[in-house]
Amino acid sequence: MKTLIKNADVVLPSGTERVSVLIEREKIVAIDPASHSVADEVVNAAGLHLIPGVIDDQVHFREPGLTHKEDLASASRACAKGGITTFLEMPNTIPSTTTRERLAAKCELAATKSLVNYGFYIGATPDNLSELQLATDTPGIKIFIGSSTGDLLVDSQEALERIFAETTLPITAHCEDEQTVQANKSRFAGTNDVSDHSRIRDVTAAVTATGRALDLAYRHGHRFHVLHVSTAAEIPLLADHRNLITSEVCPHHLFFNTDDYPRLGTLLQTNPSVKSSDDNARLWQALLQGKIQVLATDHAPHTLSEKNQPYPQSPSGMPGVETGLALMLNQVHTGKCTLEQVVYWMCEAPARVWDIVEKGQIAVGYDADLVLVDLNHSQQVRNDQQLTKCGWSAWHGETLTGWPVRTWVMGHEVYRSGIFNTDRMGQAARFDHALGGYWKTGS
Ligand code: DOR
Q: How far is Cα 404 from Cα 384, in angstroms, rounded to an integer?
């Protein structure tokens, strides 16, 4: 099967050009092929831009155990609609993904249900070192240095030292200092005011934990990725990366701040918490300056009835995979960044961070994970149009200009203007460290 995508403005590593792209089976086989090239399908993409599929390196998809909030089928459809062709999922499911057996079980589930490519982190506990040492089919180890949703937590220095010293997979972490958070919780005991969430999970909590993790990474020479940076105060810590450290920011920490609590209430409750408008501005600047490399969604669905419980019974997290790319394309529309920068932050940088071979760029020999986007299309985000099982978005009512319209995964179209190719469920590729991070077709 050969597909020729014609007349799109194609975001290539060297810049954006109006060229044709030829796909054969799962690969991109030619850029600007000879005009007599034949294909089984010709896609006229005039007026659209072609970008590599987004790689979202931080999502929570809730299967197994919490499938009333989300499952791998609903989540991966939401990804395809949102332009995400590869996700890396976090271990705080029930049971949590802390053994190779549970990792294999998740991969098996995704092998029947996922419409897009997938990888699953293995979660650290104080005593699962041998699992972390022997795991291969995973992009890396996730440590909750501070507790969040679920029961994963590694707070003891001794356990953290062992994990950084005695494992080889890249490590990534949720950095909010447990002691600081617990002390602040006591100070605000009895509060029902959700804006106290940002006083409990405060700047000190974030900076202390990020500093602690970076110290471990430097001393042990261990590759480390800081998840969801939420404060300007963490940025100087990341600047001296010594080729070991990468980091990421999420849309809610770029676009929301504590002034939004009166409007959004507990929908805005996330871990790490949102901070000030000054933090928004300086995180955005750090992204533009390359001090933060990756933009990920931290898609963390909870149902509206769960979210609408009074604080602090309300859980932390918001969905993001359907809106992440559109929010950034909207920034292109307003002139705050370029489409090429968005492609770097959401496609190329995560591929580099996680050693994902032949993904994240439009180049010959790369996997045909591709997205057509319409930079001129304006549309309102609406709760009733969300495919995530939780059925809401914190951006409900906002009009964004720039939306994904058509998505290919491993050379096959999976989504086109509201229609899914469900025949492709379970046909995507999975992360396999044993093959040097290469993504095999199927399971
Ligand atoms: O807000 C969050 N929600 N932060 C996390 O670290 C976990 C996530 C979830 O799984 O709900």
A: 18
> Do strands 117-120 and 84-89 pair parallel, antiparallel, or not at all (unpaired)?
parallel
Read off the amino acid at residue 295.
L
* Cα distance between residue 98 and residue 92, in whole Å: 9
At 8, which CATH number? 2.30.40.10
Place 443 in a pLDDT band, splitting at 50, 70 and 90: very low
- Cα–Cα distance, 258 to 68 (Å, whole number): 29
Candidate list 56, 298, 367, 432, residue with the active-site label: 298
For the chain, how many structural domains are there in total? 2
298 tagged catalytic:
yes
Whether 429 has a pLDDT exceeding 50, the answer reads yes
What's the start-to-end Cα distance of the chain, in Å?
Answer: 21
pLDDT over 70 (residue 434): no
What Rg, from alpha-carbon coordinates, does the chain have? 21
Would you say the CB of residue 92 lies under 6 angstroms from ligand 1?
yes
Asked whether residue 69 falls in the same domain as residue 209, the answer is yes
Q: What are phi and psi of 62, to 5 degrees?
A: 75, 0
Contact residues for 7 (Cβ-Cβ < 8 A; gap 6+): 18, 20, 44, 45, 46
- The protein residue with its alpha carbon nearest to ligand 1, atom 7, reads 149
